[in-house]
């Protein structure tokens, strides 16, 4: 089978019957993004038979690519990653050592440039050197900049703390393990009765105090907003705007996001930005053979309709295209909103925590404590000229009307139509300049992607219409937005004007169709302080209280390709410590995937 074909194998009754005839499935994964593929790949390394089901016609989630006019290839959600992913030994293992990454700009180390037109600030690897350069550019704030970078290192560890807490058994579970273990020691005669009593008292004290203490520590960190922390560090509002240019990487403005989210995202680029050699679709096409080698499969055009529970409330299967697929373990990577409000919509009986999540996720958006993340439009642009000849960069450009991101977004949110406001910001990237194997496939051509946040309400009128058949008014709206985004492209890259051979605009409704989102959200749940508060994080664990149901994806950890990939690892850790150990053992000799 051709490599590209492994990501496009369609679901049908015959394939399902053949798969089940070979033996029972150990797990079903709903969604083939990097979180689902990571979980499936790791379980396959441990010998599990896993079926991955994808509702789109190609596997990969936001790491998939598509080709227009048989000659223009575009990525969709992976625009760059940090070295932590490019050097990840588990990813290298589940991809069979066949995945490679290349640094965006190894010479300068620049991965992002932020600008308002009048002022440009470059972000580059080696944050010690970046700190010095920013101090030179903003000399009156040198000390505050140093405090900011120190704070980033300290606060970035909060994501590790909440990960440990999510994997930690609850107090009742820990007590039920601890007490029998100590009784076993007593019966063996290895310790005295007095020692057992002392150990029991100490153990129960730790069980009762440690978990709530750690949650309290985490909760204090998660309650601090990015804006408040950066002001506390002494940064001016202008420099806060400069340094939070990347708010679009996680979709929540500085006043609403926890500082720990900003710290994790900035820290991810310490060693630079990287891009998959051969394009992001290589992630799926290199992991799927590992799943198949263990007797599993990854099938597309397979929209899962619901999860079935038995009378005791345990997972017993899923339904896809009217067909029942028996399994005792399901990993839902669809995001919490889809998992609880759709896949478990009619499921009974549900434990109280799961029933509560279903109520929360089924509420209309204005009434919900935790809302979906922002949505964006994506402009895909192709040019019939080599990117080198055009002088296009491998780094990304972030453009803004001003450094006040709140004002930029408020103006857009208050606008009745796109005509009433400028773009709130734009992300401009050239995938053809990042992929070192681009010319092997598409020599003499280059592509660009422009992303910009928008109001979902501008598009909701056409929610019930069919894709490619939404009418003239919808197409006119797309044309207006595309025109604005092309103007932004030409403003900063005038050499592209007159070279564009093709463009297409993806809207929030495109996200709903291709990714199964509800409101066009690009990052799952909003990365707000309420979403990262302990109360919500306890409900967004990888292991749910529904026996056999696990969650994975950016809602269980943090957004981004690295966050989603690590959520897959954490989900495997929650499912089977043996599977985790087998993968870690296999990965111990794996080489990093960075191409020199």
Show the helix and strand layout.
Layout: H1 13-21, E1 27-30, H2 34-45, E2 50-53, E3 65-68, E4 72-75, E5 81-82, H3 83-86, H4 89-94, E6 101-103, E7 110-115, E8 120-124, H5 127-137, H6 142-155, H7 158-167, H8 171-188, H9 193-222, H10 226-232, H11 237-243, H12 259-267, E9 273-276, H13 282-293, E10 297-299, E11 304-309, E12 315-320, E13 323-326, E14 330-332, H14 336-343, H15 352-362, E15 375-383, H16 387-390, E16 396-399, H17 405-414, E17 426-429, H18 431-434, H19 438-442, E18 446-454, H20 472-492, E19 500-506, H21 508-515, H22 529-532, H23 534-539, E20 549-551, H24 561-575, H25 577-587
Parallel strand pairs: 1-2, 1-14, 2-10, 7-16, 14-20
Antiparallel strand pairs: 3-4, 5-9, 6-9, 7-8, 11-12, 12-13, 15-18, 15-19, 16-17, 17-18
Characterize the structure shown.
The structure is a single chain. The chain is an alpha/beta fold. 43% of the residues lie in helices and 16% in strands. It has 25 helices and 20 strands. It has a 7-stranded mixed β-sheet. A 5-stranded parallel β-sheet has the order 10-2-1-14-20. Strands 5-9-6 form a 3-stranded antiparallel β-sheet. α14 (336-343) crosses α15. The radius of gyration is 25 Å and the shape is globular. The two termini are 30 Å apart. The mean pLDDT is 93.
């Amino acid at each position: 089978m051709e490599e590209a074909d492994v990501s496009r194998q369609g679901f049908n009754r015959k394939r399902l019957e053949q798969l089940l005839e070979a033996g029972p499935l150990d797990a079903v994964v709903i969604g083939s993004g990097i979180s689902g593929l990571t979980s499936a790949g790791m379980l396959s390394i441990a010998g599990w038979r896993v079926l991955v089901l994808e509702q789109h016609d190609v596997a990969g989630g936001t790491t998939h690519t598509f080709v227009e006019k048989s000659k223009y290839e575009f990525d969709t959600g992976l625009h760059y990653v940090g070295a932590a992913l490019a050097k990840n030994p588990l990813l290298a293992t589940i991809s069979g050592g066949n995945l490679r990454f290349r640094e965006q700009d190894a010479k300068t180390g620049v991965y992002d440039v932020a600008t308002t037109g009048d002022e440009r600030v470059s972000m580059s690897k080696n944050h010690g050197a970046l700190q010095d350069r920013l101090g030179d550019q903003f000399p009156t704030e040198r000390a505050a900049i140093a405090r900011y970078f120190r704070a980033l290192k300290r606060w970035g560890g909060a994501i590790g703390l909440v990960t440990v807490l999510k994997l930690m058994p609850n107090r009742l579970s820990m007590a039920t393990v601890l007490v029998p273990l100590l009784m076993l020691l007593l019966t063996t005669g290895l310790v005295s009765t007095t020692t057992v009593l002392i150990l029991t008292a100490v153990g129960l004290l730790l069980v009762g105090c440690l978990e709530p203490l750690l949650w309290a520590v985490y909760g204090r960190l998660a309650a601090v907003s990015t804006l408040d922390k950066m002001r506390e560090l002494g940064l001016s509002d202008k420099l806060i705007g400069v340094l939070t240019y990347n708010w679009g990487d996680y979709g929540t403005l500085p006043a609403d996001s926890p500082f720990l989210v900003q710290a994790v995202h900035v820290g991810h680029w310490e060693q630079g930005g990287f891009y998959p050699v051969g394009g992001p679709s290589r992630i799926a096409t290199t992991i799927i053979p590992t799943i198949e080698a263990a007797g599993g499969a990854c099938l597309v055009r397979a929209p899962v309709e619901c999860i079935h529970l038995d009378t005791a409330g345990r997972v017993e299967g899923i339904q896809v295209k009217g067909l029942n697929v028996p399994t005792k373990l399901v990993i839902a990577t669809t995001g919490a909103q889809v998992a609880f409000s759709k896949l478990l919509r009619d499921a009974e009986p549900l434990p109280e925590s799961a029933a509560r999540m279903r109520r929360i996720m089924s509420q209309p958006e204005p009434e919900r404590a935790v809302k979906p993340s922002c949505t964006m439009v994506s402009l895909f642009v192709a040019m019939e000229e080599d990117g080198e000849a055009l002088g296009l960069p491998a780094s990304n450009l972030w453009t803004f009307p001003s450094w006040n991101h709140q004002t930029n977004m408020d103006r857009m949110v208050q606008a009745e139509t796109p005509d009433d406001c400028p773009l709130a910001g734009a992300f401009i990237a050239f995938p053809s300049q990042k992929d070192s194997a681009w010319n092997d496939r598409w020599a003499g051509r280059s592509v660009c992607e422009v992303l910009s946040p928008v109001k979902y309400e501008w598009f909701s009128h056409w929610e019930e219409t069919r894709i490619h058949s939404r009418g003239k008014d919808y197409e006119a709206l797309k044309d207006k937005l595309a025109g604005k985004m092309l103007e932004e492209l030409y403003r900063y890259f005038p050499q592209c004007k007159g070279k564009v051979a093709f463009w297409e605009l993806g809207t929030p409704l495109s996200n709903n169709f291709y990714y199964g989102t509800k409101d066009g959200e690009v990052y799952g749940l909003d990365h707000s302080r309420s979403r990262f508060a302990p109360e919500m994080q306890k409900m967004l664990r990888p292991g749910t209280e529904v026996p056999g149901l696990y969650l994975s994806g950016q809602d269980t950890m943090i957004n981004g390709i690295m966050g989603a990939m690590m959520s897959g690892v954490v989900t495997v850790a929650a499912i089977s410590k043996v599977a985790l150990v087998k993968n870690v053992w296999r990965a111990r000799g794996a080489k990093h995937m960075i191409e020199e």
